[in-house]
Each structure stands twice: as structure tokens, then as C-alpha cells.
Amino acid sequence: MRSRQTDLLKNQSPEKIKKVWLLARLTALAIFILLGLGIKIATILMKINNNWVNLALIVYLVIVILAIGVRLLAIPWEYYFHRYQVFDEYIAFQQGWFFRTTTYVPFLRIQHITVDQGPFLRMENLATITIHTAATEHQIAGLNYDEATRLRKQVMDKVRQVEKDV
């Protein structure tokens, strides 16, 4: 049975993914702020005292802080709408809290699956599973590592079964 676009899919990542997203976004904020400060230091060392440069740096920092601030505030909604579900003939991915997208990938189109862990995911024993097709890839971020490997095996078993039936 195919779910409607407005229905939420059944499976979610563990809540620990919110901590990972928070750490990743705070790290991005720190990097962008350090980049802005590095540019400011470079202008001082090169003795460039231009009001336009200073204004551009201020605008840059305000945009960075606002953009990442919105991303930080959006974590609860992003988590709520970040879902997936395995059906008999396809796997469905759902994301987006303002513009919600549900993507259905037939098992016949799946080429391979990877399970990845970055440093923040590894700290929480989480992983990202990436399902590759010929055209694109789809990710489920923040599954428990054991769940990610189990899901990978389940999907690959379904892919093999579909290939045998064709």
C-alpha cells in the first residue's frame, strides 16, 4: 500500500541524531566565523582599511549567523519529518518540514548500499545508510549502527529477490 504525500512514514532515526545535527551545525558556524575573522586579520595585516570591506564582513557574519541559527532552530522539525519505510516493492524516504518530499525507490533500481559513519555519528554509535541508484542516491541519516547494517541486509535481500523474479 502506497502512503499519501501528506502521510508520515513509519520509521524515524533515534533522537540522538538531533545531537549530531547540532554539533555539525555548530562546527559549521565556528568554521564560518573563523573564516570571517581570518579575512579581517588579513585585511589588517595588508593594511586595507576600507569601509566596504568592513561592511562586507559584517554582512557576511550576520548572514552566516542567521542561516545557521535558522538551521539550529529547525532541528526538531527536521527530525520529525525525516523518515523512511520499507515496503514490499520499494523503499520510501521522507524529508523536509516546510517542503515535504517523499521519494519511492523500487528495489529493482537499487545498485548498491553503503553504511557510513563520520566522527559525530561515531560518537553516538549512529550511521548513515546511502542507497545508490543509477541516477542518484538517497540517505537515511542517524540510524543506530546495528539497525543500519540490518536495514542494509534487509534491502539487499529484497533487491536480490526482485532480481530473481525478473
Automatic annotation (TrEMBL):
Keywords, ordered alphabetically: Membrane, Transmembrane, Transmembrane helix
Domain YdbS-like PH: 79-154
A Pfam match: bPH_2
Signal peptide annotation: none
Keyword 4Fe-4S in annotation: no
TM stretches of this protein: 20-46, 52-74
Entry coiled-coil feature ranges: none
Name the UniProt record assigns to this protein: Membrane protein YdbS
